Amino acid sequence: xxVSIQTxxxxxxxxxxxxxxxxxxxxALTRAWVEAWDVLLPEFEAAAADLMEQQIRGRVSxxxxxxxxxxxxxxxxxQAYLQELAATTADVVTRDxxxxxxxxxxxxxxxxxxxxxxxSVGSTINFARVADEALAAMVARTxxxxxxxxxxxxxxVVRMMKKHLVRGIAVGDxxxxxxxxxxxxxxxxxxxxxxxxLVISRTETLDAHREATKASEKANSDLLxxxxxxxxxxxxxxxxxxxxxxxxxxxxxxxPYDHQQGRCSRVSVTxxxxxxxxxxxxxxxxxxxxxxxxNNLTEATQRDIMGPERLRLLQDGSISWKDLSSKxxxxxxxxxxxxxxxxxxxxxxx
Length: 350
Hints:
Strand content: 5-15%
Radius of gyration: 25 Å
C-alpha cells in the first residue's frame, strides 16, 4: 500500500526505457520524412518556376494553378511518398509494441515487489504473469488501431497542401516571392504529416504499455487495491498532469488518460501489509505531493508551467488545484485530461 523510494526508482527507470523507445521511433520517422522531402523539393521548385513564368505574363488564377501540370505532378508525388510514410509509421510503431508490452509486465512486477515486505515475493506471495495469448490479443488490437490512424494520413495532408497552395498562388505580384511561398507552404503542410505520425507513434506505444499494466493488475488483483497517477514532476509537466499526480483510481478504471504524447505513469498500489497477512509495521507512502513541489519552485518557473493568468488565479485562491484539469472528448480517439483553459478558469472564479 505504501509507495517506496524503490518504487519511485522503478517508475523512473520505466519512464527512461519508454522514452528511449519513443525517441528511437521519433528519429526513424523524422529521418524518413526528411529524406522524402529532399526528393520532393525539386518537384515543387520546378512547379514554382513554371508558375512564376506564367505570372510574369499576368496574374495566375486559382483555376490555372489547380490545373498546372507540374504542380499536379508534385502533389501526386507527395501523395505517393505520404502513402509510403504512413506505412513506415505503422511499421515503426507496431515493431515496438511487443517489446512495450513485455516491458510493462516486467516493470509491473518490479513496482509491486518494491511495495511488499522484502523477500515475500516467491516465498509467501506469488506474482502471476499475463498469459501470452492475452498479450498477443493486445498486439493485434493496437496494430489495428495504428493502421486505422495512419491510413487517412496521406490523403489528409495532400488535401491541406493543395488547398493552401492553390489559394496562395493567386495572391501577390512578385513572382519570386510567390514561388518561395509556394514551396514553404508545401513543406509546412508536408511536415504536418510528420507531426501527426509522431503523435500516433508515441501515444499508441504508451497506451499499449498502460493496457499491459492493467492486464497484469487483473492477474494479480489479490495483491492490489488501486492505481496511482504519477506525473513526471518537472518544468515540462502541464498543469493538468500536475493536478492529477498522486490521485488514486480503481483497478478496473483505465488510464492515466493524459493528453496525447503524455508521459504520465500508472503505478499499481498493493493492499496493506496487514491485509496481505503480514503483522509487521508498514512504512508510509513517499509519493511526492505535486502541489507542495510546485509551491517550492521559483515564481518564474511556476509562471512558465501555468502561464501568468492561470498562476494568478491559483495564487489568489480564485481556483483550486483540482480545477486545473478538464476531461476532453476526442472523437476517433480516447477521451483525455487536458489543462483547463484560462477562459473556463475565469468563469469558475466568478
